[in-house]
Model the fold of this input.
Amino acid sequence: MRMWPLYAAGFTTAFGAHAVAANLGASSSDAVTSLLTLGILLALYDGAEVLLKPVFGTIADRIGARPVLLLGLVGFAIASGTYVLVDSPGWLWVARLGQGAAASAFSPAASTLVARLNPASKHGRAFGSYGFYKSIGYTAGPLLGGGLVWLGGFRLLFGVMTVLAASVAVWALVAVPVVPPLPRTRQTVLDLTRRITDPAFLRPTMALAAATAALSVGVGFLPVTGASDGLGTIATGAAVSLLAATAAIVQPRTGRALDAGRLTTQTGIAVGLGLAALGFGCAALPGVVFLLIAAALIGAGAGVITPLGFAALAASTPPERLGQTMGTAELGRELGDAGGPLFVAAVATVAVLDAGYLALAVLLLVGLVILGPKRT
Done:
C-alpha cells in the first residue's frame, strides 16, 4: 500500500510532461505564436528539471524525502491551478515553469523513497514497477491530454492535473510512512566530485542516459520515418504506442529477474543497449514491419536498462546520500532526453534521417562495449 502513492507520483510527472508537450503544437492558443515560442515552452519543464533535480535531491537527504515529495506534489497542483484560475497566455508560461520545478522536487524524492522503503534484494522489482507506471504516464499523456484539450482546452487539462497532483499528495500523506533522514558526514566539493566520477555512479547513469536518448529519438522520429514511407497517422501512432507499451511491460520483468539472480546489472545493460541499437538499425529499413520491429526493440532495450540502472545506483550509494544520487542521475537522464534527438537531427541535417539512426546505433554499441561485462 505504501508504494502505490510513489507509483502514482511517477505517473504524475510523466503524464504532466507529455500531456501538455504533445498538444502545444496543435493548440491554437495565443501563447504558441511561432516554432521558437513552442520550443521555449517545451524546454521550460525539462529545463527546470535539469537545474533543480540535483538540488532537491540533496534537500531530500537533509530533511527527508517524504516532505520533499509532498511539497513537490502540492507545488505541482498549485502551478497547474494557476492556469485554471487565470486562463491567459502569459500564465501558461508561469504554470509550465512551476510544474517543472515541482516535478524536480517530487521525482527524485519518489525514487529515493522507492529505495529506502524496500530492501536491496527487492530493488529490481520496486524500480521495475515504478518505471512501469511512469511509462504508463508517458504513454497515456499524449492521448488523454489530447482528449482533454479537445473537450475543454488547456484549462481543462490543467484542471485535471491539479486534481491529480493534489490527490496523490493526500494519498502520500496518508500512506507513505515517515522515513527520517539519516546522519550524514560532512561532504566537501571534492567528496562529491569523487562520488559522481566513480564508475559505480557513472556506468548506470550513462546507461540511463542512453536509454532515455533512445526512447526520445524513437518517440520523436519514428513517426517521421513512417510518414516518409507513406504510412498514415494510425500506423505511426501504433509504432509509438508499441514502443512505450513494450518499455512499460519489460521493466517489472527485468526487475524481478535481477532480484532472483537470473540477470546481472552489467549483462542486462549490455542486452538493453544491444536491443536498442538493433532497433535503430531496423528503423533505417523501409516499411511498416520494420518500423514496428524497431519500436518494439527500442522499447524493450530501454525497458531493460531503466530498472537495472536505478537499482545499481541504489546499491552503490550510502543511504544518507540517496536523494543527491537520484537527483544527479535524473540530470543525466534529462541530458540524454535532449541530447539524443539533437544528435540524430544533426546527422540527419547533413545526411538523411536513416544515417542519424545508424549513427545512434553505433554510439549505443560503443556504450555496450564500455558498459557491458568485462572479459577476464
Notes: Residues 123-175 form the longest helix (53 residues). Residues 187 and 341 are 36 Å apart (CA to CA).
